[in-house]
Every structure is written in C-alpha cells, then in structure tokens.
Amino acid sequence: MRGRSRIGVVRGLAPALGALLAGAALAAPVPERLAPCVACHGSGTSETEGVPSLGGQQADYVVTQLFQFREKQREAPPMNDVAAGFSDDDLRAYADAVATLPPPAWSGPAADPALVARAQALVSKHQCNSCHGADLTGRDAIPRIRAQREEVLAQALSAYKSNTRPGYDPAMNEVAQGLSEADIKDLAAYVARL
Q1: Do 167 and 67 form a contact (C-beta atoms < 8 A)?
Q2: According to a count of CB atoms within 10 Å of the terminal CB, is the N or C end of the chain lower?
C-alpha cells in the first residue's frame, strides 16, 4: 500500500515532468532519480509559487527533511506520500542527488537599500550567519536559504514562529519568536534577493 501511494503520486507528476522537459532545456544534466522532483521543484530553481528551490541544498539537510516527511513528523503534501515508501538508502540517495543541483540565484532587480539595511540588522541581531554560514548557503544539516523563494522563506519563518513547523532542532522556533511580521517580510525579501 505504501509503495502504491508513492507510485501513484509519481505517475501523477509524469505529465508535468514531460511538459517541463519538452518545453525547456535543463541547464545541467539532472540525475535520472530526480525526474519526479524537478517536475515541481525545477532543476535547481523552483518556478512554482510555494515550492522551494532545491539547488545547492545540503545533502544532510535534505535527508533529514525526507525522513521527517516519511515519518510524518513534518506534514507537507504531496511530500509525505512521495517519501512514504522510501528506505533509509533511498533517502540518502535522493539527498545526495539533490545536492548536485545548481543553486538558485536571484535574477531580478536589486533590493531597496532601506530593506537591505533593515534585514542586515536582523541577520546580525538574530545571528543567522552563525548557523546558515556567512553567505547563507548552509552547512551540514543546516539549509541553504540564500536565493530561496521569498514566499517559501516567509512561510517557513511564520511557521517556526507559530510552532506549526517544529524543527528537528528547536533553534529556529526560538529565534522566530523574536520576529515581528514586518521582520519576517524584510528577511524573506532580502534573503531571496541574494
């Protein structure tokens, strides 16, 4: 039953994947294993609102997220169904493959200088660089947040603040308690534009 639900989800993604691959040449070869992933997440940079970019993500972070989806410690349809039948070896193989995707990069206009100043002050105050790295590209099991989709960043910070997204480490839930809605908006806009 668990395998069938995952297969059904993957089969349901096949038409979108076909359209994606037929309509656009991928910038870099994508491991075959990731074909179902790129249907929604893109080949490194997501073009779909609310769907995170996976490119450049840390393999240890990805394996942890896939584990949480599989065990339903983190609810995020359809990811729970996709990961339901994965073995531990599958989790690692997908995570390692995701880590090979090219990282997203901001291609729009530069952020407003006032926004940059406010957000940099928040990054310093909340010590975002101490975990996510000086350039916010993450390390080990800590995610890359640099150039992530703005609405994904804002949603994650809001969910940490409300404790509706428990982390495997409570640090983000604790940090987010000190953020106002305006702070979340500024941080998300700034980090997305890096």
Answers
A1: no
A2: N
Q: By CB neighbour count within 10 A (0-12 exposed, 13-18 middle, 19+ buried), where does 181 fall?
A: exposed
Q: What's residue 18's pLDDT?
A: 36
Contacts (Cβ under 8 Å, ≥6 apart) of 12: none
The Cα 105–Cα 170 span in angstroms is: 28
pLDDT digits (tens, 9 = 90+) for 130-153: 999 999 999 999 999 999 999 999
**Greatest CA separation for the chain:** 53
**pLDDT surpasses 90 at 109:** yes
* Cβ atoms of residues 83 and 69 within 8 Å: yes
Query: Whole-angstrom Cα distance, residue 40 to residue 159?
Result: 21
Q: Would you say residue 35 has pLDDT above 90?
A: no
CA atoms of 125 and 145, how far apart (whole Å): 17
Judge contact between 167 and 160, C-beta under 8 A: yes
Neighbours of 111 (CB within 10 A): 18
Q: State residue 54's pLDDT score.
A: 97
**What is the rounded CA–CA span in Å between residue 165 and residue 128?**
18
Q: pLDDT tens, 117-129?
A: 999 999 999 999 9
The amino acid occupying position 84 is A
pLDDT mean over 163-192? 93
Structure-token pair, residue 138: 């993450």
